[in-house]
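Exercise: predict the fold of this chain.
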Amino acid sequence: MGLSVATSSANVAFGDANSSAIVDNKGVNDAFVAVGGAGVTATTTALRIPAGSAVAIATGGNAKLAAVTASSTTTLLITTGTGLPALTYGSSGGSSANASVGATGSAVPGSGTYLGGTNGGNLQGVAVNGSGQVAIQAPPSLPLPSGAATAANQTVNDGTNTAKVEAASTRPAAADKALVVTLSPNPPTYCPNSLPVNITASTDLHSFTNTGFICSIVLVVAGQEQVSIIEGTGTVCATGTAVLWGASTADSTHGMPLAANGGMGPSFNPPLPMKTSADHLCILKSGSNLLSGAIWYADAS
């Protein structure tokens, strides 16, 4: 039997005493249905049957089905029967089959139905693992919104200005925006080692294991002398000599002239790297006056 449905509630008798019915919405507008006695009416808060869909309902011994639309019209096709209805799935021009029910642990029936979903493309079935548990596949990664931070797209900004990052070979331009930083007031942790100095002659002070970095020097000399600080190997860095401060020797015409009770210090920013890994650090003096102080350094791997 059929029922023409509009925005005013209409009803139709089931025509028999069967316990269930399939109500098929053949139109292009949703319908809202209710079952009841002779005066039953339906409102738009009742059971909704989307356009092109069918639902099975229990009549509960009621005599009539009422239906209404929220707008425009549609047509319902009503088929009554008993027991669980066998719904048919198919599309125009294709074949169809009734759903089958199988026992747990048995082979899947030839026309068994599947629980599945879509990832935005083809239908995918829910899998069952070897323990008989339903395995839900992880959803695909969601696309990032435009401009989202990734490993290749990191920015630092204050809400208005974005700091620009250039390749090592690119010189900054006047219009480039940059981070403004200041030195920490805390003591540095990158130069943890100190080397006491208390000498009256040229001395090999220290042998580095890796590349040495000189962070700070405080030296005071008791009398006027020329002083040079060098690196190298051999006796007082005489082999492979590289000059750090002053000259490769220390005499009346070479080296830093330090006045009596004068000296040098205290720090260098950034630390001064030595030229060669595993070199020695040496101080050359032109006289025999006491030279005292300390050198802070790092032995970096």
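Check your answer against the key: Residues 99 and 113 are 6 Å apart (CA to CA).
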